């Protein structure tokens, strides 16, 4: 492993016993962390373990309450507000920091445009951009607008932008959280190139297989404490997961109880068509967990947005309990007991600038109205119930939802949706960007809901989760369901064959 | 009176940001102290009554604007809307004199028409922004121009005057008092209370805040975004109509220069009060204080010769900028990291 060769080199960036508290609340306790040139150092831990805080300290966005930061061996006070970019330390946030309406070239040179006398020197900038992109093996035109790029491409632009600023240390917060597998592959190839160039990379991820694959060393944090820093080759994924949560994680997935094949059909969809969906039919039984697998963009989200009245559809029929229905609004679907939980919890799920209470009651708001007035007591009671039921761990109930961790946000979103008391729950990417401990909890919630007689649809791009949780799986490809797998057939090979178009079942339900 | 009634409950629901909540109240208090120290007649009953009455127009319109802005919209057309409603009201009442005489019936017809016109104008703004999918700024900039030119056209470039006989009947609505307070102030208080309850205690208020925070979240949370947004513009139109009803008897006329720049004063009152311009957080109590602050500045300048009265706009502008600057500071402090 390269880490052995590097072990004598002075770390490029080093945090020496740093502690950090926000007001009264301590979040990091004397944590040490370092990263060397040409190394990928992964930082893992549950949500709230202090990863983000440590990263922000390393990037100069926070000043530690105690402890030292050493840069190239010298104790340094990093300048605030990202000015440490000038030193070569670049932090790429999870929410990418690009000007959407500007072009790739304009973004890369943002703030240090080349100019000749008073005019911009577009020619030299375009050429340099082209060169940077080619160096990284990214096939994007410098004049493309950022808003026209996929998330993965935007990520590449961020990296190219960082590299064009001669970054020595690149700190990345969950860069792969929103990438598909193919995009992740591409991304890792870029990381390898950067490593070869001698860049020090700090990589935060919840996806342990990726950590295992790409990182040289890994540091585990738990509850603001340093747990271990080890060479990745010395750790199994199970060991990492255990150190993260501090307990055995043998049962990540709940035991599957067989569904009653004769249970009543609560939802039947026939010949659904929209601009993205082509003739989709399926049945959902009471108490069943039906998975929807397939590549990103295969139409899974579009299908359920159409069913739930969020987007219109061209033709097709929906039967709820055998009765033909057509929801014209989300409210109608909700009142019929069907709710859709979005995969975009920050953009479409939660009001980030508000506290938990108005968020929790928003979806089921009519329930909280008494004599035309909001019944705040009922809301408070519901919040207490939701916090207990879904184990939401917020510092205090007045914290803004945007300041909560991803895992807690997801639990709040689940609690919000459950306030509608649905009979059919559709969850899109239930565990995107959350830690393994919270994942386990969410899988158990889903299983418990189904055991109570609720029907659940799980849309997911994470194969293990589909396999681990669902009774039956529908695989979609290019707007069609290419096949259903159930029971012992639910395995990766079978699903991938349907998803990739290598196999297609004759149209049946 | 009214500022206390409205500011106190707001405090209860947002106890953790005292500075932001109390800021406008403190500013008003300071202005009053300054006013009193410059001229003790500032706090005389006559002047306080006058001040409250003057605040009523902008205040009522600004309460409507609080809804529009909280839901993430903006309405630039209110000043012109007030002018065109005033103009049409006068035309309608003058024409009704022949049939209904110069009594209360005619005035009621005028008021009824004013309310219908206000709701209609608000509905147009609302539908164009939601169904027409045009930005609110553009839509209301357009209707602002249209309404302004219409009133000029109706007045044929001059002034529309209310029939002298009706003036006598209608006059008390502006000039008479009821339990010691002029009628416009009562209307202001009533609109304030209804507005406060609507925004803070009903599902509708919650919907407005949610839409202003994020339309996408609102849509996915089963909220009919288009309908609620249209309602906010209708409420705005209704508030303009009410303000016009109490404004017309003051001068008994309308012209192309009626209500000029009211939209800016209304928006300024809303912003000074702590409502966030990009939506998602609205405060009726703050809006009321904002309207009072704006009127008080003008009043103090009238009272003293320390600063020229012509600098009224400068003082108002400074207050707006300082108010927003102070709010910005306290937003920053709220930033915390992940739990």
UniProtKB/TrEMBL annotation, chain A:
<dbReference type="InterPro" id="IPR017871">
    <property type="entry name" value="ABC_transporter-like_CS"/>
</dbReference>
<dbReference type="Pfam" id="PF00005">
    <property type="entry name" value="ABC_tran"/>
</dbReference>
<feature type="domain" description="ABC transporter">
    <location>
        <begin position="261"/>
        <end position="503"/>
    </location>
</feature>
<keyword id="KW-0067">ATP-binding</keyword>
<dbReference type="InterPro" id="IPR027417">
    <property type="entry name" value="P-loop_NTPase"/>
</dbReference>
<protein>
    <submittedName>
        <fullName>Sugar ABC transporter ATP-binding protein</fullName>
    </submittedName>
</protein>
<comment type="similarity">
    <text>Belongs to the ABC transporter superfamily.</text>
</comment>
<keyword id="KW-0677">Repeat</keyword>
<dbReference type="InterPro" id="IPR003593">
    <property type="entry name" value="AAA+_ATPase"/>
</dbReference>
<dbReference type="GO" id="GO:0005524">
    <property type="term" value="F:ATP binding"/>
</dbReference>
<keyword id="KW-0813">Transport</keyword>
<dbReference type="InterPro" id="IPR050107">
    <property type="entry name" value="ABC_carbohydrate_import_ATPase"/>
</dbReference>
<keyword id="KW-0547">Nucleotide-binding</keyword>
<feature type="domain" description="ABC transporter">
    <location>
        <begin position="13"/>
        <end position="248"/>
    </location>
</feature>
<keyword id="KW-0762">Sugar transport</keyword>
<dbReference type="InterPro" id="IPR003439">
    <property type="entry name" value="ABC_transporter-like_ATP-bd"/>
</dbReference>
Automatic annotation (TrEMBL), chain B:
<feature type="transmembrane region" description="Helical">
    <location>
        <begin position="21"/>
        <end position="39"/>
    </location>
</feature>
<dbReference type="InterPro" id="IPR001851">
    <property type="entry name" value="ABC_transp_permease"/>
</dbReference>
<keyword id="KW-0472">Membrane</keyword>
<feature type="transmembrane region" description="Helical">
    <location>
        <begin position="260"/>
        <end position="277"/>
    </location>
</feature>
<feature type="transmembrane region" description="Helical">
    <location>
        <begin position="51"/>
        <end position="69"/>
    </location>
</feature>
<feature type="transmembrane region" description="Helical">
    <location>
        <begin position="175"/>
        <end position="199"/>
    </location>
</feature>
<feature type="transmembrane region" description="Helical">
    <location>
        <begin position="230"/>
        <end position="248"/>
    </location>
</feature>
<keyword id="KW-1133">Transmembrane helix</keyword>
<dbReference type="Pfam" id="PF02653">
    <property type="entry name" value="BPD_transp_2"/>
</dbReference>
<protein>
    <submittedName>
        <fullName>ABC transporter permease</fullName>
    </submittedName>
</protein>
<feature type="transmembrane region" description="Helical">
    <location>
        <begin position="136"/>
        <end position="155"/>
    </location>
</feature>
<feature type="transmembrane region" description="Helical">
    <location>
        <begin position="103"/>
        <end position="124"/>
    </location>
</feature>
<feature type="transmembrane region" description="Helical">
    <location>
        <begin position="284"/>
        <end position="301"/>
    </location>
</feature>
<keyword id="KW-0812">Transmembrane</keyword>
<feature type="transmembrane region" description="Helical">
    <location>
        <begin position="307"/>
        <end position="326"/>
    </location>
</feature>
<keyword id="KW-1003">Cell membrane</keyword>
